[in-house]
Design goal:
14 helices, 5-stranded parallel sheet, 2 domains, Helicase, Ruva Protein, domain 3, Rossmann fold, alpha/beta, 16% strand
């Protein structure tokens, strides 16, 4: 059945109006960090969780808080600490002496947007409880399972330079994050504006600009964005090259990749490319969409070997060589 690109583009124009309102409202309280905001929006549009990595003081928590407030749904911030328990996250059963029965008390995970601040500070039991919520969209308390609200999104932050009191995230959980956004320092001009805003006490806060229902409607249109078979083959070639670069004819990666990207990377890469095209107002995906969001999808799914780490090769370097070595359709 042929795709009516004109109709899809028209629906995108209609359903993406809230994005400009949301971006404008967030820009009132967050200076710069356009890549971080775009990554959060793509996660929101595609229903994928986002991991933000950066040193302290880069407005990660502030940006997530602002985006969640603009969304207009429920928002919970959970500060992850080494003594956090699964019940602190998902809830527990409380005994009611009047009825003589146990009743569930739901935890802060029951929200549209959950900020897992410094996620790598929590132990394995907490991570496993969060894993069910991220993957299944549900939580088990006692012997009963409870669905989480829609939309449901986990936005997590972690500090890459602090090691004391932290627990490396399990690979299975890292793979559940659609995107890993590396947050960098602001430019000098942006930092000047931040200083002037804070010192002069001109900081404001945002107001809700959209609703969860608008986001859910936009997600349906994202799924309608057209992906040509050649684009899909390009996505599959990129992911396959991370597992066996020699078979795909990609040079310079032999002995540098311990484990390549999982099939979830192929799914997320195509879906994120659709989300990027949606933000750009296009009803179809082009290779530039895949390249624009490919770093965030692949960098946490490709594990360098010990030899590569010893040579100072980072996951971003491996992703760059993948994009350079795989032919663009």
């Amino acid at each position: 059945m042929p795709i009516d690109l004109a109709a899809v583009t028209e629906r995108i124009a209609e359903q993406s109006r809230f994005l400009s309102r949301l971006r404008g409202e967030v820009a009132r309280v967050v200076v710069g960090q356009e890549e971080m905001v775009e990554g959060l929006l793509i996660g929101l549009l595609c229903g994928g969780h986002v991991l933000l990595e950066g040193v302290p003081g880069l407005a990660k928590t502030r940006t997530v808080n602002a985006v969640a407030t603009c969304l207009g749904g429920s928002f919970r911030r959970i500060q992850f600490t080494p003594d956090l328990l699964p019940a602190d996250l998902v809830g527990t059963l409380i005994f009611n002496p009047k009825s003589g029965e146990f009743a569930p008390r739901k935890g802060p995970i029951f929200a549209n947007v959950v900020l897992a601040d410094e996620i790598n500070r929590a132990p394995a039991k907490v991570q496993s409880a969060l894993l069910e919520a991220m993957q299944e969209g549900q939580v088990t308390i006692g012997y009963a399972t409870y669905p989480l609200p829609e939309p449901f999104l986990v936005l997590a932050t972690q500090n890459p330079i602090e090691q004391e009191g932290t627990y490396p995230l399990p690979e299975a959980q890292v793979d559940r994050f659609m995107l890993k956004v590396v947050v960098g320092y602001p430019s000098l001009e942006e930092e000047r504006r931040i200083m002037e805003m804070v010192v002069a006490d001109r900081t404001e806060w945002v107001e809700p600009t959209t609703t969860p229902e608008e986001v859910l409607a936009a997600r349906k249109v994202v799924r309608e964005v057209y992906v040509d078979a050649k684009i899909r083959d390009y996505v599959l070639a990129l992911v396959a090259a991370s597992r066996d670069p020699e078979a795909l004819g990609v040079e310079g990666l032999a002995g540098l990749i311990e484990y390549g990207a999982s099939p979830r990377a192929s799914i997320f890469l195509e879906l994120a490319a659709r989300g990027h095209a949606f933000i750009e107002g296009r009803g179809y995906v082009i290779p530039e969409d895949v390249k624009a969001i490919g770093w965030e999808v692949l960098r946490h799914r490709i594990l360098p070997t010990y030899e590569a780490q010893a040579e100072g090769v980072r996951p971003d370097d491996l992703v760059r060589r993948l994009f350079d070595g795989v032919a663009v359709p």
